[in-house]
């Protein structure tokens, strides 16, 4: 019997494996995806970005997506048919392998959204069970152990920090970052150097960044990116106390009414096996964690494990917002700037948080973060971005070729991404579809999607501000797209932490209310998501929970 | 262009192409064009004619690549169906207007047909897919059997990221 069995090896599971194995506990990690390492990662657009190599084929494993049509009726479509892929990185280390590594902490007010900004009709907003102060030491720990590079500058929304500076200097920055700084100065804005979970040079027993010009969506071939495998699991393995089983899909958790007792999984050959442990940690990402619980029915939990009050899967959230772009053209730039515009490999590392909170009609409104970067280097996407004219007519022939050539050789798109709160609502949740099964015959997750109008209003407000910045930088063809479409890679909620079983699934330490030895440590616990990407917070909370678990082992509670 | 003449034209294009002999098992060399690839080949010629230096799509094995796409488990069946059916639809449109198939029309007539179908939802989708996969062929790593001699990258002074793939990745 293992001391700890962890389901999922990403940012939610890996800190537990790291801490517990280093403390001498016997740890088993089960990962549904493959075991890729640095030597398996290539800059192969076709495989990575066009054929989604790192997620399961949709005809073998899929989701059912429910959306509301114009008549207000809910329509369910299998993703095998629509191609709408809700999987993220399915591999050891999870989707942290594929992140861009924009690391932002949540702000103190993000932990108390309800009490700070008030109720919003139609949204299930609650304050968190913990405050920023409790999580801060763990944000700090992530900086040092996972490796966060950056530079601290003072600005109105800078979070309190226990370390004055980041432990690693910023990655190599593109000259456009100084153009950005100048534009911010003119507009009276605070240019924030974005921290990155990327090592600028060799450290932490890992290689530094090779500045290959591809980061987001791609696995890191050097290990510079602070993914859960490179940064944590490799070190957990070195203790000799940690076992990682890849290609192992956990489909059921057994319980005896008080404790989880056993997990069942299919291995690579489709054989059903099981594992036992004193304590179980679920971290399969928000959608799949809820799915596993809902599929784990028993006499004590007839509607799914931990779901006697119908809370599992509820209040699913994403990161609201969207993106925008502007084009910087050679003909608008002096010669010396033309030469550097096309420089590849360096990071932009800039963001704005001037409107993380703002006032409208005398009322305090929660805003968000705007990250700035160059258009992704993937060439097919860049070229396909040119096939429609401004009236959305397809173009072809010499005109299209001219546009593609111009896009690559005489201009460069500067883009932004808006992150604001996706308010939790009654109509955004995870269930299971008993009629649709995956290749193992297990019911798939059914995801109902709904966003609150407030999300779009805030996102549009932020996009307008970002467009002003692009204009100041001299960009043309400026446009943005703020929509209710959820980014599948920025997902949280489904197993909220809270005071009691009637309105939440987990307690303040992310332990199940209903069982004594089952924890959920991916983003499922988050009742609200803040206006930043989630990864840093997931890492930090998982380190926090690891301390709670270690204390229980120390106190011989387990 | 008459059908017979077109076939001869295609053969010249294909024989003049330096195909990647180590193309692995993705885009293979195409020796004879049969439908739907005759029509698709002509449409791609019309979408990407020689102009401002872009390599001719046949020089980077676009038809071989499209055939591989049609066999690719990772490409949704619905997309393959549209790709395949589009040739029937465009030929029907050509027949309605000129009582000829698309490949038998004059260049002006073909452009008019393209303009007409691009205003239809199915036509917009079909042409978009053809452009999408043509550009995939042009930008994919040469290990996939297209983008022969990196001509697509060279046209745009595009520098691929490193490390590059050493072999065709079969995805599944």
Provide keyphrases for this structure.
heterodimer; A: 558 residues; alpha+beta; seven-stranded mixed sheet; B: 172 residues; mainly alpha; disordered N terminus
Number of strands of chain A: 22
Sketch the topology of chain B as an H/E string, one letter per element: HHHHHHH
The residue ranges of chain A in which pLDDT falls below 50 over 5 or more consecutive positions are none
Mean pLDDT of chain A: 97
Q: What's the N-to-C terminus distance of chain A?
A: 13 Å
Quaternary assembly: heterodimer
Number of strands of chain B: 0
Strand content of chain B: under 5%
Q: Roughly how many Å is the radius of gyration of chain B?
A: 16 Å
Quote the distance from N terminus to C terminus of chain B: 42 Å
* Helicity level of chain A: 25-40%
The percentage helix of chain B is 40-55%
Could you characterize the architecture of this molecule?
The complex is a heterodimer of chains A (558) and B (172). Chain A is α+β, with helices and mostly antiparallel strands. Helix content of chain A is 25%, strand content 23%. Chain A contains 13 helices and 22 strands. By secondary structure, chain B is mainly alpha-helical. Chain B has seven helices and no strands. The longest helix of chain B is centred in the middle third of the chain and has 22 residues, at 77-98. Chain B is globular. Mean pLDDT of chain B is 86; it is low at 1-23. The chains are: A alpha+beta (558), B mainly alpha (172). The interface between A and B is large, with 42 and 46 residues.
């Amino acid at each position: 019997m293992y001391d700890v069995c962890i389901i999922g090896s990403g940012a939610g599971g890996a800190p537990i494996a790291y801490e517990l194995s280093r403390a001498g506990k016997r740890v088993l990690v089960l990962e549904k995806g493959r075991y890729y390492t640095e030597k398996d990662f290539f800059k192969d657009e076709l495989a990575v970005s066009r054929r989604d190599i790192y997620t399961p084929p949709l005809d073998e494993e899929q989701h059912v997506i429910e959306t509301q049509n114009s008549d207000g009726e809910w329509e369910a479509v299998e993703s095998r048919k629509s191609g709408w892929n809700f999987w993220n990185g399915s591999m050891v280390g999870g989707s942290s392998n594929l992140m861009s590594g924009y690391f932002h902490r949540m702000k103190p007010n993000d932990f108390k959204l309800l009490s700070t900004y008030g109720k919003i009709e139609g949204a299930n907003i609650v304050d968190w069970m913990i405050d920023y102060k409790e999580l801060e030491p763990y944000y700090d720990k992530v900086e040092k152990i996972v490796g966060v590079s950056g530079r601290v500058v003072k600005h109105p929304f800078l979070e309190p920090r226990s370390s004055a500076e980041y432990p690693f200097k910023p990655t190599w920055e593109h000259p456009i970052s100084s153009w950005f700084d100048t534009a911010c100065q003119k507009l009276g804005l605070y240019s924030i150097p974005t921290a990155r979970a990327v090592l600028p040079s060799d450290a932490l027993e890992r290689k530094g960044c090779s500045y290959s010009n591809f980061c987001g969506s791609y696995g890191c071939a050097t290990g510079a990116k602070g993914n859960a495998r490179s940064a944590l699991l490799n070190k957990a393995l070195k203790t000799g106390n940690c076992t990682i089983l890849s290609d192992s899909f956990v489909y059921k958790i057994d319980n005896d009414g008080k404790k989880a007792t056993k997990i069942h999984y299919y291995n690579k050959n489709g054989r059903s096996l099981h594992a036992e442990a004193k304590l179980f940690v679920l971290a399969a990402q928000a959608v799949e964690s809820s799915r596993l619980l809902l599929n784990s029915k028993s006499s004590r939990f007839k509607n799914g494990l931990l779901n006697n009050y119908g809370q599992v899967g509820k209040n699913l959230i994403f990161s609201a917002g969207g993106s925008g772009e502007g084009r910087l053209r050679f003909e608008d730039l002096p010669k010396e700037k033309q030469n550097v515009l096309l420089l590849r490999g360096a990071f932009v590392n800039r963001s704005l948080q001037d409107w993380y909170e703002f006032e409208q009609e005398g009322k305090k409104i929660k805003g968000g973060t705007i990250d700035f970067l160059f258009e992704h280097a993937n060439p097919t996407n860049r070229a396909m971005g040119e096939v429609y004219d401004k009236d959305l007519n397809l173009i072809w022939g010499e005109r299209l070729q001219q546009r593609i050539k111009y896009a690559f050789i005489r201009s460069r798109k500067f883009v932004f991404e808006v992150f604001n709160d996706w308010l939790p609502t009654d109509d955004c949740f995870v269930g299971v579809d008993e009629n649709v099964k995956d290749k193992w015959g297990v019911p798939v997750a059914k995801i109902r999607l709904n966003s609150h109008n407030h999300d779009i209003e805030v996102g549009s407000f932020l996009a307008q501000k970002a467009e002003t910045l692009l204009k100041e930088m001299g960009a043309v063809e400026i446009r943005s797209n703020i929509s209710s479409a959820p980014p599948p890679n920025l997902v949280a909620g489904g197993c909220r932490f809270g005071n009691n079983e009637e309105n939440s699934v987990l307690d303040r330490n992310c332990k199940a209310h209903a069982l004594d030895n089952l924890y959920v440590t991916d983003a499922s616990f988050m009742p609200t998501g803040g206006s930043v990407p989630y990864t840093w917070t997931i890492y930090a909370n998982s380190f926090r929970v690891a301390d709670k678990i270690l204390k229980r082992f120390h106190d011989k509670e387990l | 262009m008459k059908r017979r003449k077109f076939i001869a034209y295609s053969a010249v294009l294909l024989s003049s192409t330096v195909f990647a002999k180590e193309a692995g098992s993705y885009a293979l060399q195409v020796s004879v064009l049969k439908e739907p690839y005759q029509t698709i080949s002509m449409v791609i010629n019309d979408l990407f004619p020689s102009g401002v230096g872009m390599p001719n799509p046949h020089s980077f094995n676009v038809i071989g690549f499209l055939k591989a796409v049609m066999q690719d488990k990772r490409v949704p069946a619905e997309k393959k169906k549209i790709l395949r059916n589009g040739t029937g639809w465009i030929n029907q449109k050509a027949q309605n207007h000129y009582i000829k198939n698309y490949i038998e029309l004059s260049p002006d007539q073909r452009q008019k047909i393209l303009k007409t179908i691009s205003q239809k939802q199915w036509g917009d989708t079909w042409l978009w897919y053809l452009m999408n996969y043509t550009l995939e062929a042009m930008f994919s790593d040469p290990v996939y059997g297209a983008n022969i001699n990196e001509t697509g990258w060279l046209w745009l002074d595009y520098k691929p990221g490193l490390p590059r793939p050493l072999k065709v990745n079969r995805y599944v």
